[in-house]
Amino acid sequence: MNTVNHQSQAAPGFESDPYCGAFPELRAFWEATARGQLLVKTCKACERAHWYPRMFCPFCSSQDTEWREASGTGKIYAFSEVLRTEVPYVLAYVRLEEGPILMTNIVDADPAQLQIDQPVRVLFRPTQEGRDFPVFTPV
Amino acid sequence: MSINGKAYVVGAYEHPTRFAPDKSVAQLHAECAAGALEDAGLSFSDVDGYFCAGDAPGGGPLPLADYMNLKLSWVNGTELGGCSYLAHIGHAAAAIAAGKCSVALITLAGKPRSQGVSVGTQPRVLSPDRPETPWDPPTRWSIAGIYGMYAMRHMHQYGTTAEQLAWVKVAASHHAQHNPLALLRKVVTVEDVLASPVIARPLHKLDCCVITDGGGALVLTRPEIARSLKQPLVKVLGCGETIKTNNGGELDVTRTGAERSGAAAFAEAGIGVGDIKYASVYDNFTIMVIMQLEDLGFCKKGEGGKFVADGNLISGVGKLPWNTDGGGLCNNHPMNRGGITKAIEAVRQLRGQAHPLVQVKNCDFALASGPGLVLGDGHAHATVIFGRE
Question: Do B145 and A82 touch (CB under 8 A)?
Fold first, then answer.
């Protein structure tokens, strides 16, 4: 994992996306996803990565945290094919190689073939508001 | 300070409606309050402590206290979703023990059925200032999808089966057939559950609770006042509450807040799980009953599926009579919040006022437990233990 420096380029839609605007401290994350990179927040005091990203380490309470580029790979921890909805989709928890588990979707996959512990890798899909959101697909 | 023995539940009322398009939410709250006060033999003018949650119009106690014209010395609007009212029992007992109020009223009401809200299957839209909202809503998560993931993981980790999940619904339906007010009174089989449409794999429609209008209310008071009233005495022995967090992404979705809230309630009550004769356990989804029974200690972690199978939760048949009103799966789930009806049926059991065909013999200790709200794997949780005196 490499330490990532803050970039000046703005993520598309950042200024108008209320979910970004409410958390100015997370701007670097969305700038990275716009470049196709997944960052995780890691605590410099206890060296543990957490999810969702915050400036405050939820494990040791240190405020000394930094963005690191994640491998973008992980394994399915749990998933559910949601059928009672307009367009069926797969809701999932993926455990990143760096440790934490995040809520996401599994895309470009046959839901009937998915299994817990299956390896997956990150892709990015635009949200309604325009930011690029990490989803996963089988390796 | 322990609240064990400091407060008694003297009034309990479940609104008979399951569909109330012609009533306001405020009126439903007031009708529930009136019903519980009448059950206690008290009046609105006796109430000096009021407890409500996010279902109260305006989101807090002020508008309803004004509507009912309560004269209060203690007010509490703790919002923990469906388990708020179980937490309120503990808060009311603490306030009574501290002398802050003498007669505490707790109300819940709402009308999602007549408003056509499918809360469990709709993607959730939350305000942008909540710290999880940049991350969770883009997944289009719904409550059913979250619980589907819990069930998939529990099956993977412990070998739990869809048939075992279905047994929870089967038990609820066996009880609901005796409840004339239950929304769903038809007895169903494991096969019926498995034949119902899949909502979020592996959960079927009959693994999910009902959506109803209605509400409920409870009245608690000091021992001296309780002894002067007409109902059999139901004492609050122990209360526990917690928030299970997502723990920075180090989560275990097979575990619930019942681990903490249950342990705290049992410690305060000074009794063990083996003493419980009746259990109300919030049944928003069948899998959640299994996980909570494990976490409360009724069986070992991972063995909840086996524990609920073969009718073990059916009163008069199995070892643990559970949700004998038909629960949220069959009877009632007013405002999508199951906490208060869990306490009400526990009170009925301890008083000997449950339906004769589901009444537990010699019911001296009962438990009411449940989760509230959903934040990924996070949720609030509360447990109350009551004793008959």
Answer: yes
User: Within chain B, where are the H helices?
Assistant: 25-40, 61-68, 84-97, 143-158, 162-176, 190-195, 223-227, 258-269, 286-296, 304-308, 339-351
Contacts (Cβ under 8 Å, ≥6 apart) of A5: none
Residue A87 is assigned to a structural domain of this protein: yes
How many pairs of residues across A and B have Cβ atoms under 8 Å apart? 125
Q: CB distance from B128 to chain A under 8 Å? A: yes
Q: Are A82 and B148 inside 8 Å of each other by CB?
A: yes
Left, alpha or beta for B173 (phi > 0: left; psi -120 to 50: alpha)?
alpha
Helix (H, G, I), strand (E, B) or coil at A69: strand
Query: B139-209+238-388: which CATH number, 3.30.450.20, 3.40.47.10, 3.40.30.10, 1.20.120.450?
Result: 3.40.47.10
Domain count, chain A: 1
Which of A46-60, A67-81, B124-138 has the weakest average pLDDT?
A: B124-138
CB contact at 8 A, A133 and A83: no
Q: Do domains B8-115+213-235 and B139-209+238-388 have the same CATH topology?
A: yes
Nearest to B327 by CA among B203, B163, B181: B181
Going through chain A in order, the beta strands assigned E by DSSP cover 39-43, 49-50, 65-69, 73-82, 89-96, 101-106, 119-126, 132-138
Q: For residue A28, give both structure tokens.
A: 């670097």
**pTM for the structure as a whole:** 0.96
Tell me what ipTM this predicted complex has: 0.95
**B93-118 per-position pLDDT tens digit:** 999 999 999 999 999 999 999 998 77
Query: Is there a domain that residue A13 lies in?
Result: no
Q: Closest Cα to residue B85, out of B364, B388, B342?
A: B342
**Do the beta carbons of residue B29 and residue B58 sit within 8 Å?**
no
- pLDDT value of residue A11: 52
Per this entry, what is the length of chain B?
389
Q: How far from the centroid of its chain's Cα atoms is residue B61's Cα? A: 20
Residues B300-358 have pLDDT tens digits of: 999 999 999 999 999 999 999 999 999 999 999 999 999 999 999 999 999 999 999 99
Phi, psi of B211 (to 5 degrees): -115, 120
Place of tokens 């609050």: B236
CATH fold of B8-115+213-235, please?
Peroxisomal Thiolase; Chain A, domain 1 (3.40.47)
Judged by a CB distance cut-off of 8 A, whether residue B334 touches chain A is no
Residues A116, B152: C-beta atoms closer than 8 Å:
yes
Q: Which domain holds residue A28?
A: 18-138
> What residue segments make up the domains of chain B, in order of their start?
8-115+213-235, 139-209+238-388
Place of tokens 């909840």: B304
Nearest to B128 among A18, A77, A78 (CB): A18
A91 and B376 in contact by Cβ < 8 A? no
Task: Tell me the shortest Cα–Cα distance from A114 to chain B, in angstroms.
Answer: 11
